[in-house]
Design goal:
Helices cover 73% and strands 4% of the residues. By secondary structure, it is mostly helical.
Length: 170
């Protein structure tokens, strides 16, 4: 699990620079799918550490400073996506993954994305003193983009991972 968490953090950190700008300082980033994968496979603590540490790595390499509110949001998002790990009979490593598990992942993922970004908006407005309209625009845009990437890339990747192991188990 520790190795998986470290790999997740490095992968998330090194791929988070890849994105399509949607509003100033906010991109549609395919790397969000990695939080679903590492959270689901290794659990919420791994998702938390991979998201938070990966975001910090990205900011240290590709930005001028660490955005702590956004780094915490990445960690919270990964942790929420990882809650599916505790679902009854969920074990993608053994090929035990059902549509009900995917629904749980979807619900916790969307709640995690918007909950984490609500925290980030609050943090940016009240701690970092960003103008309300800029912070709110970034939060809403990032939320929509993250949900899109999560649904289009993250959910299918977790499903495929579990199903790949299902056929290998027989």
């Amino acid at each position: 699990m520790a190795a998986g968490t470290a790999i997740g953090a490095v992968m998330y950190g090194l791929t988070s620079w890849i994105g399509i700008p949607i509003v100033p300082d906010t991109d549609l980033r395919p790397a969000i799918a990695l939080l679903a994968i590492f959270g689901a496979i290794f659990g919420p603590f791994s998702g938390l550490i991979a998201g938070f540490t990966g975001h910090v790595i990205n900011d240290l390499i590709f930005a001028s400073e660490v955005s702590w509110g956004w780094a915490l949001a990445s960690g919270i998002t990964g942790a929420c996506m990882g809650l599916v790990y505790f679902a009854r009979d969920f074990d993608p490593e053994a090929g035990r993954i059902r549509k009900g598990h995917m629904l749980i992942l979807l619900i916790f993922g969307v709640i995690g994305i918007f909950g984490a970004l609500a925290f980030t908006g609050w943090f940016d407005i009240y701690v970092m003193k960003f103008p309300d309209e800029i912070a709110i625009t970034q939060v809403i845009s990032a939320g929509i983009a993250n949900v899109f990437v999560f649904i289009v890339l993250g959910l299918p990747a977790v499903w495929a991972y579990g199903n790949r192991h299902k056929s290998a188990a027989f």
